[in-house]
Amino acid sequence: MTVITLPDEQAAALKAKASAAGLTLEAWLQKLAAEQERPTSQPPRHIADVICENMRDVPPEIMAAMPTDGASQHDHYIYGWPKKEA
Predict the structure, then answer these.
(1) What is the pLDDT of residues 49-63, one digit of tens each?
(2) What is the pLDDT of residues 24-38, one digit of tens each?
(3) What are the CA-CA distances from residue 79 to residues 70, 75, 76, 83 (Å)?
(4) What is the reported pTM?
(5) What ranges in 7-82 are assigned the alpha helix state H?
(6) Distance from C-alpha of 24 to C-alpha of 41, rounded to nearest angstrom
(7) From CA 35, how far away is CA 28, in angstroms rounded?
(8) Which end of the chain is more exposed for a tag (fewer CB within 10 A), N or C?
(9) CB 35 within 8 A of CB 41
(10) Distance CA 18, CA 20 (A)
């Protein structure tokens, strides 16, 4: 068995969540672990399909304003670094 030591306030918060669900802390954690182990009913999807699905509802005017060099200049757009020369 693995023992995890938590600060008192975190342990109390977890016990409160378990109690709100009508379970002991141990039973609540076992229930959460079991939920994570369940296989998904959907087959794995390619990441490109997921991205396209998420971008489907982005308005055209927002898409038009997106940088066309976002991949090659990601440090510029994320961190504000100077653009790399092509």
Answers:
(1) 999 999 999 999 999
(2) 999 999 999 888 876
(3) 12, 5, 6, 11
(4) 0.41
(5) 8-20, 25-37, 47-55, 60-65, 74-79
(6) 29
(7) 11
(8) N
(9) no
(10) 5
